[in-house]
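Q: Fold this one first, please.
A: Sequence and structure below.
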Amino acid sequence: MRTRGAFRRFRALVFVFFCIGGTGFRVATLSAHAVPFPNSRSLVESQTSPQPAESKPTEPASANPPTQTKPKQKSKKKEKKSKKKATGNGSLVVAPLPIVSPALGGGIIPILGYITPIPPKDKAAPPSVMGAAGLITNNGSRGFVLGADLYLKRGRYELEPIYAHGNLNYNLYGVGFVNGNAGLKLPLKQSGQGFFVKFLRNVGWDTYVGVRFLTGSSFITLNPTSGKIPPIPPGIGIQTNLRSLGMEVWRDSRPNRFYPVKGSVIDFTGDFFAQGLGSKYSFQSYKFTFNKYVSLTKRQVLAYNLYLCGTGGSPPFYGNCIYGTSNELRGYTAGRYLDRYMIATQLEYRLVLPWRFGLVAFGGDGGVAPGAESWRSNQLLPAGGTGIRYMLSKKYHVNLRTDFAWGKDNFTWGLGVGEAF
């Protein structure tokens, strides 16, 4: 059974960015300024991997046959017990990640994740992910996320519940390329909570189909500021409820979703926010993702990513397509460029090194636009960079990721768990 990139979604939750996203509570990878690479001693891993059975010294032979059989019976029992202990397939990943973000300031993001098949002793079942993450920064941002991506009945069903709560202080640059390029900042504070759940069924050919539901509320206020600011969007100072029903279709042919070396991912989602459901805004959000992986050698992988986003109706500013979120693309401050439509494409070279380390190099291009006919070649947003990997879990090849990226406007640095895509 091949499974999708569930850990990628949990990794995105780590950054708890409720304020920017198609739901008002999207959790996105935030870019950060360069700081020293964290000491690998701060990374902790605990695994229940199989361990060899203990053996006792050989006892001297005896002429009495009954006394010869008893030690053998005891050793067989101990072998059975040892095999039972060795059937655990879980892996615990703990990573306290530092953050120095142009959007949220400096602080720490503690991560706790557990990867295991359900039931744990079923080696044929695809691994599920359960975890929690927090956020504490020096600009007053606080938050936490609880989530799980569960594969039930040997991958026949996927259940993914997520709960997020917190308050964030961040800057809004305005909607559109022109506002983002101007660099004027509107300091905002947003508090709120949200709950998301989806339930999908495997219909064959590595394809899952199902429904999604989101409900949440938030309150946005303007922080004190001086100087020139971009236009203030509607909805400031108003309690906002958002609620949507949606659908998802995806196909995943990767043998290992945590570190894919071959296969592909095709994912399409549609979320429909409506006042009839209790949402303040009525709009639609569509997203399409295509990933392809090719092994060049045993230690080298080439990964390709294409991401398309479109928004219809009357969304709030955070309901638009956001450039720089979910690693689309690295090298940009999350939320600086947002609009009705977005495209991003990137290519990444991955190299596995000895002693759990790895290196990557990546580059890509994309942009945002108010309409399908409004794309301009002089408004593209290219990015490129390099990164270091450290393997937190040998069992599932889950990496700690640090990326140094250059965009059109500035240099960024980011940390995360799992591959960028």
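Q: Good. Now the second chain.
A: Here it is, same layout.
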Amino acid sequence: MPDQKEKKYLKPLPHIDEETRPWWEALQRHELYIQKCRACGELRFHPRAQCTECLSPRTEWVRCSGRGKIYTFTTTYQNPLPGFRESLPYIMAWVELDEGVKMLTNVVECRPEEVKIGMPVEVVYEDVTPQVTLANFRPAR
């Protein structure tokens, strides 16, 4: 019988493939990585097989600081879908990492009225299943 405190994760889970596997494996270790093109040096998120600047397939993964700032955000107050309605209200944001790339993510541990564009944030990891860990962000401490 499952532990009474154990909650089932109801939101959709990502499809993990060869292109994104290193990203998800790093998150499981509670590490944040982005891709860097070995040909032109461009940093990118989300994971792709080719550089979006020069189309080179030569990619390496670089560890990020996990710090950034809110580029823009929205707060959702209504969503009837299972998993989402239990999280209301929730904050979705584009976070600009200190390394310069932007990530679409959730802002957690923060009331909606406290979020501001330019607010410093830091990564926090949410282990949602044994295979999937998500990178969310909270106000920097």
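Q: Anything worth noting on the second one?
A: DSSP finds one helix and eight strands in the chain.
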